[in-house]
Each structure stands twice: as structure tokens, then as C-alpha cells.
């Protein structure tokens, strides 16, 4: 989320036409096209954040600026040359970093939360305990993971969160 993404469509010599067909998981399809005989580009239903990275006659790479969850889906590039049609398909998965907090509950137990991440984060503690993380799925495809450390001492303990978009650790004494 928030970064740019480049999807490479290998250029071929003497390209007649290039088409990107985009099918997001949510929302309507869009397409970008280029015809060499008219040196013309066309776009149908694509947002401004989706466009050619360079001139499509030289390099048909697709750029998605400021990636959002709505961009997740299938992206197919078709290159037409005299020898035939060549396709490459990508499936874009958007990672959402969770909001991370470490606090103490009313009983003095450390509570570690990784809220609204995609995919779900993994939570562990430096000192093993009998904690079972609880997951809550949200309508937007993100997941909140909550883990409570149950210990019999007031020593400082450390929560470790692992996620493809972020690794985090923080210590607390309750």
C-alpha cells in the first residue's frame, strides 16, 4: 500500500499492438492499448494511477502509482507481432502493514496487537507462554491479531510481530 509497482511486459521487435487487460478483485475492468500503425494509445476505465511507465512503442511496462487495496487483481499483457500473440499475466497482491500497539491490560498483563494488516501478522513473545493469538477478520480483507501475555511475574517482556510488510519488536513491564 502506498508504493509504486512496475509490471514488466517484455518488448518484442516489430510490435503491432500491446494491450494491458486489468481485472481487479473489486470494481470494474480496465485496459490500456497501443497500436503501432497509428502510433496511438487508448485507455478504458483505468484510474490515473495506472499508466504506461515509458512510451509503449519502446517499453510496454505498466506502472501503478500509490498502490491501494483496490488495485489487487489480475494484470495481463498481450503483445501482438507477426509471429503471433504473446501473453504474460501477473496477480497483484497488496500487502497492508498492521497498526502495532503494546500495552498493559487491567490485570497487568502485556497485550500486543497488530491491527488491520493483510495478511494476518504473526505474534510471539520472547518468553514463551500459554497465549493463543485471536484473529478478527474485517470486511475490507484485513485482519487484526491480538495476543495477551499471561505471566506470573512483573518482569519486562518483549512482543515480536512478523509480517511481510514489517517486522517489529517492543518491550514492556506491566
UniProtKB/TrEMBL annotation:
GO terms for cellular component: external side of plasma membrane. Gene3D superfamilies: Immunoglobulins. InterPro entries: CD200R, CD80_C2-set, Ig-like_dom, Ig-like_dom_sf, Ig-like_fold, Ig_V-set. It is found in: Membrane. It is a single-pass membrane protein. GO terms for biological process: regulation of neuroinflammatory response. It holds the Pfam family C2-set_2. GO terms for molecular function: signaling receptor activity. Keywords: Disulfide bond, Glycoprotein, Membrane, Receptor, Transmembrane, Transmembrane helix. Residues 60-173 form the Ig-like domain. Its main location: membrane. The keyword Transmembrane helix applies. Belongs to the CD200R family. PANTHER family: CELL SURFACE GLYCOPROTEIN CD200 RECEPTOR 2, CELL SURFACE GLYCOPROTEIN OX2 RECEPTOR PRECURSOR. This is MOR1B protein. It comes from Alca torda (Razorbill). The gene is Cd200r1b.
